[in-house]
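Aim 2 progress update. The chain analyzed this quarter is reproduced below.
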Amino acid sequence: MKRQSELIRNYKRDIRSGISARKGSNKLFEYDALKAAHRTAALQVGPLGKPLNVNLDTLVVSRGYSVHNRAVEILGAINKGWIAGSADRDGNAVSMYKIIANPWITTNTLYWWLFDSKMKNSKYGFQFKESLPISLEGPNVVFKTGEIQYKSSTIFDLGFNDPRGWVCSKNTNAT
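Predicted structure tokens:
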């Protein structure tokens, strides 16, 4: 019995100090996973070794699945100043976040992502670079058939510049 209580005490200490974040971010979406994600983001440094100051404030989930429902429940507890899933009614350690419930995530619906919305700019985050906007050519009328033809073209690039403002999880609770 003494050994079990010692393990529980050490586990709680590790959660408070963020050591569990070293095991990766593949934690089930719960309050402790949010704390681990924030700890992981706090440990991110720039190229010179200085803290990146990532402030996770937006959660991306698949709409209508268990992660989305739990995120809404946790956010409700945070709004009241409570710790989600606990009767302690201590103050919570996670700041408010916005939920983006994406209906187009139809595979891997348990995955979840947290990101810093202030890091969506030309230096950080996912990028859409348009070098030629959509241009419409036409109409061209084919005399024999009366067909009206249009042509449009665009040039763009999709990718990412620096994704360090994102923390992701497969929601497998793997170490």
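Residues 2-125+161-169 form one domain. The chain has one domain: 2-125+161-169. These observations will guide the mutagenesis experiments scheduled for the next reporting period.
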